[in-house]
Design brief:
Blueprint lengths: L3 E4 L9 H16 L3 E4 L13 H12 L22 H13 L3 E4 L3 H13 L22 H7 L5 E4 L6 E6 L3 E6 L7 E4 L6 H11 L4 E5 L6 H11 L5 E5 L2 E2 L9 H7 L22 H10 L13 H7 L10 E2 L2 H13 L3 H5 L2 H7 L7 H8 L8 H5 L1 H4 L6 H8 L3 H15 L3 H13 L4 H12 L8 H29 L1
Parallel strand pairs: 1-2, 8-9, 10-11
Antiparallel strand pairs: 3-4, 4-7, 5-6
Helix pairs in contact: 1-10, 6-7, 9-11, 18-19, 18-20, 18-21, 20-21
Bound molecules: glutamic acid (GLU).
Glutamic acid (GLU) binds next to helix 6.
Length: about 500
C-alpha cells in the first residue's frame, strides 16, 4: 500500500514551529517510505479563519524544501484539499451515519444547554450531552418523525451517538495501546445546520477518503483519538495508524512554547515573518536547513551522537522508533549552533548565492563580497551575524578604551611602525605575516601583544576575524591609514 500522510493545519494565523515540526515529521515519514506528503487546509471554523494564513503555510513549507506532493496549490487526485470546498462530501457522509443510527439530530436551544451547564457546575460536575441524559433533550431520538422534520426547519446540530459501557481501544505508534471507556465520552457534535462539519468529523472523513495511512500530529490531539475511532467504526471504516508527537515546551519552566516566550526573549517561533512586527527564522538569518535540522531534533534522534543533517540525510535516517515520548524543550542557543554547523558545511559561493546574504552585503563593494564572506564565515551563527562581524569595515571608532589602556605603555608605536614598514615592503600577504612573526620573536615582543596592537589599529577592539586576513581584505592603503590613525591617536593622548 502506498504510504500517504497529511499535514492538516487550520489557517488561524502564522504557522508556529510546533506545527512546522509536525509538517516535517510527516514529510520525513513520507520520504522515508517513498510515499506521498499531502497538505490539507482545515478551514471549516470560520470564526478562527485568518486571511493570509494559507499562503503563509504554503510559503513556509516551500522555504523549508518540503513542498507537498498534493495540496491546494499543486492539486492531486484526492482534492479538493481545502475543507471549505468539501461541504458536499460531508453532507453526503453525515447522511450515512444518520441512516444507520450512529448519529442523530439535536435541537436544543443555547439557553437550555447553558442552563444545564450551570446546574452541573453548581454540583461541581462538567455537563455532558450523552448516553446518560440524551433522552431528556430535544432531539431526533425523543421527537416523532414529524416533529423532527418540523424542527429541521430551524437550527440544529448532528451528534455522534456513543453507546455506553464499551471500551474503545486505540493504538498510537509512540504510546502504544490506549483503552478508554465510552462512559467518559459525550455525544460530540459532528455537524451544524450551516452544513459545516466540526473538526472531528471532517478530519476523519477526509483521512479516510484521502487514503491516509498514518496520521501524524501533535500530542494535543491524543484525547480526541477515541472519539475519532468511534467515527471510523460508525462508518465501518478501518483506521489508519496514528502517531502523536511530543509537545514542544518553552525553554525554561512549564508549558508549551508560545509566541510570548519568543517576544520576551528575542527569538522567533515562526519560520517566516508575519505582518510587520513578527520576525521569523528566515529574517533572523537562519538557513532553511538550519531551522529544519533543529526542528528534527525536537522529539527525534537517530540513537547516535549525530546531530547535523542535510534534508536528504534526515529523509534517510528518520524512523518512528527514534521519536520520543517525552516533551522536547525549545533551545534557541542550540538552534543557532545547528545553523552555525550548517553554515560551516557550505562553501563561500553557496553562502553568497543566498538572497539574504546579498541583501546584507549590499552596502559593500561588489568585488569584495566573496572575500568578506570568507573573512567572517567561521564566526557566523546566522547570516545576520555578517552585518555585525563586518561593522569594522565602515568604521572602527571609538577605539575600545580597555585595549588602549592595555597596550599603551607597551611600546605600541614601535610595533605599529614596524608593521607599517613591513606592510609597505611585503604587501598584505603571507610573507608579511611571516616577517612580522619573526620580527616579534627576534625583538622579544610577544605575539599576543603584536596581534592586539595590530587588531586595535585595524578593528578598534579585540574581537573579530584573523587579523592578517582582515588586513588583506581591507587592502594595503586602508590598513596603512588605520595604523597611522592609531599612531596619531596615541601621540595625541601623550600630549594630553
Ligand atoms: N486542524 C488540526 C490542527 O490544526 C489538525 C489536527 C490533525 O492533524 O488531525 O491542529
Amino acid at each position: 500500500m502506498n504510504t500517504r500522510v497529511r499535514f492538516a493545519p487550520s489557517p488561524t494565523g502564522p504557522l508556529h514551529i510546533g506545527g512546522l515540526r509536525t509538517a516535517l515529521f510527516n514529510y520525513l515519514y513520507a520520504k522515508k517510505k517513498a510515499g506521498t506528503f499531502i497538505l490539507r487546509i482545515e478551514d471549516t471554523d470560520q470564526n478562527r479563519y485568518v486571511e493570509g494564513s494559507e499562503n503563509y503555510i504554503q510559503e513556509a513549507l516551500e522555504w523549508c524544501g518540503m513542498d507537498p506532493d498534493e495540496g491546494p496549490k499543486n492539486g492531486g487526485a484526492f482534492g479538493p484539499y481545502r475543507q471549505s470546498e468539501r461541504k458536499d462530501i460531508y453532507a453526503k457522509h453525515i447522511q450515512d451515519l444518520l441512516r444507520n443510527g450512529a448519529a442523530y439530530y439535536a435541537f436544543d436551544s443555547a439557553e437550555r444547554l447553558n442552563k444545564e451547564r450551570k446546574e452541573a457546575e453548581k454540583k461541581g460536575e462538567t455537563f455532558k450531552y450523552g448516553h446518560q441524559n440524551r433522552l431528556r433533550f430535544k432531539n431526533s431520538l425523543t421527537l416523532t418523525e414529524e416533529e423532527t422534520a418540523k424542527a429541521l426547519e430551524d437550527d440544529f446540530v448532528i451528534r455522534l451517538k456513543i453507546e455506553s459501557d464499551q471500551t474503545v481501544i486505540v493504538e498510537d505508534i509512540i504510546r502504544g495501546v490506549v483503552r478508554v471507556k465510552t462512559d467518559t465520552l459525550d455525544d460530540k457534535i459532528l455537524m451544524k445546520s450551516d452544513g459545516l462539519p466540526t473538526y472531528h468529523f471532517a478530519n476523519v472523513v477526509d483521512d479516510h477518503l484521502m487514503k491516509i495511512t498514518c496520521v501524524i500530529r501533535g500530542e494535543e490531539w491524543l484525547p480526541s483519538l477515541p472519539m475519532h475511532k468511534l467515527i471510523y467504526t460508525a462508518f465501518g471504516w478501518e483506521t489508519p495508524e496514528f502517531m502523536h508527537l511530543p509537545l514542544i515546551l518553552k525553554t525554561v519552566g512549564k508549558g508549551k512554547l508560545s509566541k510570548r516566550d519568543g517576544d520576551r526573549d528575542g527569538y522567533p517561533v515562526f519560520p517566516l515573518k508575519w505582518g510587520k512586527e513578527t520576525q521569523g527564522f528566515k529574517e533572523m538569518g537562519f538557513l532553511p536547513i538550519g531551522m529544519v535540522n533543529y526542528l528534527a531534533l525536537l522529539g527525534w534522534n537517530e540513537g547516535t551522537e549525530k546531530e547535523v543533517y542535510s534534508l536528504k540525510e534526515l529523509e534517510k535516517a528518520f524512523s518512528t522508533k527514534g521519536v520520543q515520548k517525552g516533551s522536547a524543550r525549545f533551545d534557541y542557543e542550540k538552534a543557532k549552533w545547528v545553523n552555525q554547523q550548517q553554515l560551516q558545511n557550505m562553501s563561500i559561493e553557496e553562502i553568497y548565492s543566498l538572497s539574504r546574504t546579498k541583501e546584507i552585503l549590499s552596502p559593500f563593494e561588489k568585488n569584495k563580497h566573496l572575500s568578506l564572506i570568507k573573512l567572517v564565515k567561521k564566526r557566523l551563527n546566522t547570516l545576520n551575524d555578517i552585518k555585525g562581524e563586518l561593522a569594522f569595515i565602515k568604521s572602527i571608532h571609538p577605539y575600545d578604551k580597555k585595549v588602549i589602556d592595555k597596550v599603551e605603555d607597551k611600546n605600541p608605536k614601535t610595533i605599529l611602525e614596524q608593521i607599517k614598514k613591513t606592510l609597505i615592503k611585503y604587501d598584505e600577504d603571507d610573507l608579511f605575516k611571516e616577517q612580522m612573526m619573526s620580527w616579534s620573536k627576534k625583538n622579544g615582543v610577544s605575539i599576543g601583544l603584536l596581534m592586539q596592537t595590530f587588531r586595535l589599529a585595524l578593528v578598534g577592539k579585540l574581537t573579530g576575524p584573523d587579523i592578517f586576513e582582515v588586513c588583506s581584505v581591507l587592502g594595503k592603503e586602508v590598513s596603512l591609514k588605520r595604523i597611522n590613525d592609531l599612531i596619531e591617536h596615541l601621540n595625541f593622548k601623550q600630549i594630553l
